[in-house]
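Colleagues,

For the teaching module next term, I've prepared a clean inverse folding example: a structure given as tokens, and then the sequence designed for it. I'd like students to try predicting residues themselves before seeing the answer, so please don't circulate the second half yet.
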């Protein structure tokens, strides 16, 4: 056999296999492409007697690839007032006058582009058609949209003797197409309208070479329709149309004007939009926005500095520069950002300036002016009545730029409502710019949601009032809950007695089952004893009366308290019990002070109370008390919530309470001694579940 046939094919196929793997690994994903060509534009121009016109376009589009999501149309009328109801429909459906497969289209007028074209001329006005859903897929579609324009005010309808000349320029298309058509609808007049192909001023030789235009006239009693047809629309050039009509077609019927109507007409003329008046309105709006926002930034800085100094901390603006230039720069950045968002197609530059204004208005969490904490002075703990100690502190007044106060909420809602009105007004012109304007609300949130009262250092004598009041309420409710056990104990005893009586009667009737009946009776008696003992213990806890007081610490030489705690103690406590205290320690955090609750149990060493809570001591921390011969057990909940803190405090109250006389059952004798219940011990489950 030849050697070339005897060789194994593996090594020969390895190189092509590796090349295929490399090709697959470095292959780029195919990107969607779309190509659109304009195959025709059927325009209808309906002019009323006042010189205002409604322009309807039916543009035939040939889409390749896809989907087509947006289309820019250049060369529209600059004063176009878009009408709703635009849509795109496949060509076959359009020929059949069916809108079953129509796609809604959103039309918006783009801001003017100030960049000149290559020949130095200004770019024509443009509008953008956005197709809803997935866009237009491959095929031929007809795009329908409509808008209004005023030919009389723009000087495109001019009276020339007994006739009037109407001139209108169509859109500019990148592709040339055949059979450009325009249907002009005019009010009825004695003389019929006709096409005007006379050279325009300044056109020169190009006007002499204008293409031939075919016209078809259809007349009725109230209107005339002149259909104009050109064999070809040039590529990249707008089509200029001109028509001459009877001047009497644009003379509205005279109506007697009343004085009130004449006054209203003058007011309407005075309020009519004009370039100069619009420029003045925009300038005034910019100045007002600058003044309002700069004033808000300055007032917020003054307000936050006053509160921070009173709390003994230093204010920290996000941008640490003096207040006057910071407020002015914030106002200028906001005005410039909003202006760029409304004028440019891309909102990135405007959004960056708005973000800069937000940073200039924001504040960070204040920090103490002195580094390191100082030891507090000695003081005395004074008991205070519950109603007096946990009374709600007075509401802070005179703070209007903080979202945590009522005045701050009202002012923020009012400013957001004003911003919403502006967004609603802009949405009719451009939804895209309306969304950008809505996102500018962050500039207001930086004022109202930073530098809040909650970010200042907490006052240990006033901040924990609401928390401690909630803990006291939950402890009371927890101690009252087991009271229903007293009602279940008699029922359990009666059931046990009935169960014990049943086997005894059965034993009397059946002598052979006497031993079994006796054993069963003994078990039932033991179960009844357990239920009775448990019910007695729970009833003892339910009968426990709780005393709730407030404990204030007054430093020596100061009339103001520097800490508030909640004191709990049962009326009947075990010997050696001193107190149960619930306090809150505040730690600094990113958004302000964080309250960390703690439950303290004070007992005398070697006392019965210490022995009763010995099992609970493993769940807390042990330390010396403030007095000689005092031991303190500190318990911290897993989460700093009032529910878990109250669970720990209630468990400690139950553990140190003295049950009433007769609550501990006696040990049964005889056969039930082995199953007799023992005195209830303070369980560790309640502590370990919350600690």
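(Answer key — instructors only)
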């Amino acid at each position: 056999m030849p050697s070339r046939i005897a060789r194994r094919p593996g090594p020969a196929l390895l190189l092509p296999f590796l090349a295929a793997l490399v090709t697959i690994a470095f292959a780029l994903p195919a990107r969607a492409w779309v190509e659109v060509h304009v195959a025709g534009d059927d325009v209808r121009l309906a002019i009323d007697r006042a010189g205002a016109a409604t322009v309807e376009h039916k543009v035939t589009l040939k889409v390749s690839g896809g989907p087509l999501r947006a289309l820019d149309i250049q060369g529209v009328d600059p004063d176009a007032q878009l009408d709703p109801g635009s849509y795109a429909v496949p060509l076959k459906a359009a020929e059949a006058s069916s809108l079953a497969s129509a796609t809604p289209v959103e039309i918006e007028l783009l801001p003017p582009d100030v960049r000149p074209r290559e020949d130095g001329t200004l770019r024509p006005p443009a509008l953008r058609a956005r197709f809803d859903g997935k866009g237009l897929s491959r095929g031929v579609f007809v795009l329908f949209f409509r808008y209004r324009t005023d030919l009389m005010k723009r000087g495109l309808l001019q009276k020339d003797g007994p006739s009037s000349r109407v001139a209108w320029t169509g859109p500019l298309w990148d592709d040339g197409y055949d059979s450009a058509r325009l249907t002009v609808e005019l009010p009825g007049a004695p003389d019929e309208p006709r096409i005007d192909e006379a050279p325009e001023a300044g056109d020169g030789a190009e006007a002499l070479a204008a293409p031939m235009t075919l016209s078809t006239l259809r007349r009725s009693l109230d209107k005339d329709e002149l259909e104009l047809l050109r064999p070809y629309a040039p590529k990249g050039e707008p089509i200029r149309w001109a028509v001459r009509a009877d001047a009497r077609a644009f003379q509205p019927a005279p109506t007697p004007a009343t004085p009130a109507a004449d006054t209203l007409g003058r007011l309407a003329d005075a309020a009519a939009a004009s370039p100069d008046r619009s420029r003045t309105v925009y300038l005034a709006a910019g100045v007002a926005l600058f003044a309002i926002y700069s004033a808000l930034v300055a007032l917020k800085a003054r307000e936050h500095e006053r509160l921070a100094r009173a709390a003994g901390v230093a204010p920290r603006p996000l941008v640490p520069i003096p207040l006057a230039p910071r407020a002015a720069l914030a106002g200028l950045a906001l005005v410039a950002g909003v202006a760029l968002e409304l004028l440019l197609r891309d909102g990135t530059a405007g959004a960056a300036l708005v973000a800069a204004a937000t940073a200039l208005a924001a504040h960070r969490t204040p920090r103490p002016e002195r580094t390191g904490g100082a030891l507090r002075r000695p003081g005395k703990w004074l008991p205070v009545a519950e109603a007096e100690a946990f009374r709600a502190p007075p509401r802070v007044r005179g703070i209007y730029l903080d979202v945590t106060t009522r005045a701050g909420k009202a002012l923020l809602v009012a400013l957001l409502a004003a911003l919403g009105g502006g967004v609603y007004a802009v949405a009719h012109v451009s939804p895209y710019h309306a969304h950008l304007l809505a996102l500018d609300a962050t500039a207001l949130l930086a004022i109202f949601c930073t530098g809040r009262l909650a970010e200042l250092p907490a006052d240990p004598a006033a901040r924990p009032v609401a928390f401690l009041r909630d803990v006291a309420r939950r402890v009371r409710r927890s101690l009252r809950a087991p009271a229903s056990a007293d009602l279940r104990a008699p029922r359990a005893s009666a059931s046990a007695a009935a169960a014990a009586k049943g086997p005894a009667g059965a034993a009397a009737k059946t002598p052979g089952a006497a031993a079994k009946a006796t054993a069963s009776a003994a078990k039932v008696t033991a179960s009844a004893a357990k239920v009775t003992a448990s019910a007695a213990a729970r009833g003892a806890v339910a009968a426990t009366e709780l005393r709730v007081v407030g404990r204030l610490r007054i430093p020596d030489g100061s009339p103001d308290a520097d800490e508030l705690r909640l004191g709990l103690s049962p009326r009947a406590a075990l010997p050696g019990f001193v107190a149960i205290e619930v306090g809150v320690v505040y730690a600094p955090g990113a958004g302000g002070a964080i309250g960390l609750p703690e439950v303290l149990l004070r007992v005398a060493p070697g006392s019965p109370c210490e022995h009763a809570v010995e099992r609970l001591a493993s769940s807390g921390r042990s330390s010396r008390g403030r007095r000689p011969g005092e031991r303190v057990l500190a318990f911290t909940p897993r989460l700093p919530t009032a529910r878990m803190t109250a669970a720990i405090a209630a468990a400690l109250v139950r553990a140190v309470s003295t049950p009433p006389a007769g609550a501990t059952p006696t040990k049964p004798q005889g056969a039930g001694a082995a199953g007799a219940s023992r005195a209830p011990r303070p369980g560790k489950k309640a502590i370990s579940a919350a600690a």
